[in-house]
Amino acid sequence: MTIRVLLVDDQPLLRVAFTLVLDSQPDLEVAGEAEDGAEAVRLATRLRPDVVLMDVRMPGLDGIEATRQIVEQCPDTQVLILTTFDLDEYAFAGLRAGASGFLLKNAQPDELLSAIRSVAAGDAVVAPRITRRLLDTFASQLPADGAGPTRSEQAVEALTTRERSVLVQIARGLSNAEVAAELYLAEATVKTHVSRILLKLGLRDRVQAVVYAYENHLVRPA
After folding, report:
1. H/E stretch holding 21
2. What is the DSSP letter of 134?
3. Considering the entire predicted model, what is its pTM?
4. What is the per-residue pLDDT across 87-118, written as a single tens digit (0 to 9) for each?
5. Scanning 51, 111, 197, 202, which has the fewest C-beta atoms within 10 Å of its C-beta?
């Protein structure tokens, strides 16, 4: 099955480079190109691509707000944010806006291709150092011992023990295959657990599950 990709970047040369990389793959197809966020939203709603490669800093509507609008209007389209700026604010804002992944533009071509295929399949892609800083940041917000549970924390009680274990492993950045190996489960079983976790917690995808786990103190620094 061909994965249709919308390229969004205000630099024409980068769009050409991405096109060359994607066109070299038999299962990937460039569905369209946009040079700013507003055009990206228009094209996404018209073309309904499987994946949007989204730049962050662009004139007019930026990549974060464009991501938010695309996720809202095209729920079956996944957004993979690419940026030269290795800054927490972009990673956090992009993930909160509904992006399914975050990679730097200096990632190797194989990393980019793998990321596109992963988010198209419903998985999440977050650069390891971003995951580490997410954990470090939210660790500083942990409540004092004895603090009462929040409403979100209470929602976690709806999860089974196994689902909670799977959620913790996801939050640590493990793929389904890695979670399966860690918990001695079949990969298909892990996928079923992930689907149930998202349903019970009212989350859109794995990235939201990662942020949810950090915000609700399910993962702590080693």
Report:
1. helix 12-23
2. H
3. 0.67
4. 556 666 777 788 888 787 788 888 889 889 98
5. 202
